[in-house]
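Please predict the structure of the following assembly.
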Amino acid sequence: MFSAAIVMNYLLASAVTAFIGIATRSRKLLDLVAIAMATTGLILSISLMFNTINYGVSTYMFGGFRPPLGVVYYADFISSSLSLLSSFATVVSIILACISMDQSIRRYFYPIAFLLIAGVHSFLFTGDIFHLYVATELVTITSCALTAIYSDKRNAIRATLIYGIAGTAITSFLLLSVILVYGSYGTVNIADIALKSIDPKAVTPFSGGVFGEIVSASITALAMITWVFLFKSGIMPTHFWLPRVYRSAPIASLVLFTSSSDILGVYGILRIYRILFSENSVITSFRNTMLFSLTAISTISAFLSALLTARQDRVRGIVAYSTITQLSLALAGVISRDSEAVAGGLLHISVNALGDTSILTGYTIYMKNRDIDNFSSRLAKVLIMIGFLNLFGLIPIVPGFWSKALMTKGFLDDGNIVGVATVLISTGLCAIGYFRFAINILLREQTSKFKVVSTEGRYFLNTTILLLLIAIVLGLGIGLTLNPQILNIIVELVSRSIDVDTYIANTFNMVNR
Amino acid sequence: MYIEVEEWSASIPVAVSLITLGNVVLFRVPIVGCVLRSLGFLSIALLIKGLDFFSETLLITSSIVGIALAFYTYAYSKTKYGGIGLVSLIDIFLLSMVMLFRAKIFIEFITFWLLTELIAFFLIAYDYIAKEDVNPLRASIKYLVFSMIPTDLSLFILLAMTGFEEAFVTPITSLELRITNPVILIIVLLGFFSKAAVIPLHFWLPDAHSVAPSPASALLSGIMVKMGVYGLYLVANQVIDEVLTATTIILFGGLTAIYGAIQASIQQDIKRLLAYSTTSETGILSIALGLYILSKDPIFITASALYSIAHALYKAFMFMDSGYIEIAIHTRNINELGFIYRLSAIQSTSVLMSITSYLGMPPSIGFVAKLILFTEISKYLSNSYAYPAALTILILKTIISIIYNTVYLKAHFGSKSLTTSPKPIPSREDKYLKTSCITVSVYSYIITLPLVILLMYSEPISTKFKALDILYPLILSLTAISLTLYLLIYIVIKYRGS
Amino acid sequence: MDMLIVAFTTTAIALIVNIVIATYGIFTDRSLLKKVISLLIFSDTLSVFAILIGFRIPKVVSSPSPPIHLDIPGTVKDIEEFLTRTVDPIPQAFIITAIVINLAIFSFLAGLLLQYYKHFGSLDVHVLEEEEVVDEVY
């Protein structure tokens, strides 16, 4: 129930903010409504989180149609935690837009941002691959729009066109694989396909048995979908769009990208490889080959992008390449056989999002208040440092430490020493870029190299958002350090979420919850 | 092995608050600030207790070096950078290492280890932060890649092996990890090698230690490399393949000892000379540790603990001295030096004291350490090829160390004369610098007696090493004699210099 | 019936050739406008492909009929006839959705192309990228 409520809330927020933006000149009302709607979304996400922890899963049938027939929303621990992450990022992003964006741009920004988040959430919750395609398209086009929102920035237009054309082309392959899967399986429900890919003779109500030859269709679909999701997360061979977008998009959009739209690729791969075509499916040998090549790709991608991170000296470059590195590491964790590594990979996604958000927010506020040495500019410095420490992840009071520790443990239990080395060496290489930047920005006296956009007040919002982020990052880290058994609970919940039999059973015995 | 006494629960707050207060006061009344910080570091030795003899000696060493650096860092920072930003960074660095050596559970160990590493990164890059010099940044990046990353790799592997929960509850001393996979074992060893700058990952150290500010170099060389040895000691207590571990450690340790010593002998820059000498010393320490793993005889640990103290005091002093030379003359090239004894007789006398102490002049701590180490190795000579090999390396290294120490002495007692008159150091800072230096070198003599008494009451040493009973009165008299001797030497140098 | 199979096979081959050409165009052509046109061809090809799958080759034997059941309530034979002969409507539903999405995307891309032309004076993708003004916070 909550899952649909969240999506509806964001769609409504999009419509309402668009209406207010057109109808009134009052920017205060617009900001207030946007922040209120984003906060509502966050509260709904938290409720969803509690709901899934209590009941194991939270599901919703659209129009009351039973699963193979209708579209369903299926929110387990993984999707609800990622939903919480992106709802939180929405709040931060909206506040950041209030602080940093021009007044005339904000009325375009809010509806598109809410639409993006609605798309992200339907991607996270959906139990239907066609709906997955629709959500992907929605996310692609809205993130394009958010990149190009300042239409007078020519590099932004260029980045958007490259991203838009490549993104649409790649997403069309997702449509092609959906059609192929439908043509052979006769259904688009994920649980139904998962069941039939394990047992081709299975017969379910409404969709019946499989329709055609499923092996070659599954292989083609799996290969194509993998590339689509690698592109969405910007893993190395398909990363060309990501640094361009990160160099030219507004900061408020970047906060959204790094914690919602870019994580979808890794999440999608987790869903496809764990649920849709699971370990015992008919294409298991091809799946293993793909998993092996994915491991190789993620390792190479992590190393190369870490080396590139070390060479960056602008905050956007660092955030871009560091995102590629951390998402590659998360991918390596997610496709590992060990559920601890999977949990570590998912935690690492959140860590990367929180770290990038901290750095970008702190940097924006710091640059805007640089000339007025006040409380919030000093707080911003602290936040940037915490963000870098979190991404580096070597002090137990930041969550980055625990995601790396979990992944290390998972890889070690799996006997994958290369994975252990990849995690630690690539974050270490990234640290060169982080700390060089931190020294240059924070510790040395700056010669005024950067143009100060405005030094307007907004003192209350600045301080609130900075304190909020510091509290969240440190609170999460210290919470994990003081209660390491939380990690075991997370691993337990994650391993229950990636179990395909549970997924199928929960979908077919669905109640609206 | 070690007398059990409960640690006073408020000991850490006392030490930390004394040092913090000292740092705050330092802005207004420097002398009170320095005294408070010295007291804080003194309280570390008196109040904070280690886990066993090794960690206890490391704590005592940190405390002594901290006391000596309390005045030195202030004067150095004030003269070289004009501000006192370096002081608090150095204090946090040392405190973090102290917390590491007293860590009771593994997660504490990891936390402070990583904190120490992070602060060390900023200390090495300090000249870049303060003066925009690019070389320190390069050195610190080299340190990050070749020392931090490998060590983190091994720490994370160990943490993963504990399964997290054990890291929070089990004391370090009773941790029993099964490191059976040889690849993982080698990775873990390499990680600690990189911190101790043992051969395959040694090359970061000369750069890092020579570009850091001198008080930082003193801590990096004197104490931080011991962290690597402490880590290896930790690994030695787990369930491991003993022969493989011991062979690896002794082989690479031996290579490092010889290579570092030879490199040190041919350096022109005094700080690089000292840095190479550090790699050579950690080679010897790891050899002692390897022999401990091979023989399971705890006296090797005692020997290497004593050797650590000797080396830490020596290296702390030498880097303080090189910092003094740098501030006074603005050069570190040996060929341009050779007249320090004319400028400051007391500085040159303390160099002499420190070097002879380290080379093993009788009542000094270096003497006791070498005595125990040599005697122990000779006891086992017929057991395995490792022992004669270790003995040979030790002797070779001692010979070469005489060479590079002589080279260093040329900076003080050379034939060159002063061509340009250097910019004088403000009198208060000059006094602080010299007092700190002489304190450290005197320490290396007078600390022997309490340590020998401590050893006499510690379990395996007192039964196995009867010679201590004879040594004890001898050391007392020799200490008095040698201190008088150095007083005479000081007078001679003073007379010659003027 | 044979003619039907031949026609379907020809269409299928044509569609595959179309996909190859469109992909080639998207990834190699220098002109952004031509890239967008290739993209359009690609998505339309996919729509036709989905419609083709709706015909349920080779299970639908002959003369496919629209998925509308006229005789209510029909006999069992009527329903059987209906089940074997009708075209599957679900791919058409998919395609309607996809077409709507594509409409939005292509109008957006067209707008972007206009902006691009305004900024760079050409639609070539390999224009000289200028060093951006150092203004990172916006």
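Helices of chain C lie at 2-28, 32-54, 76-85, 90-120. The CA atoms of residues 67 and 83 of chain C lie 9 Å apart.
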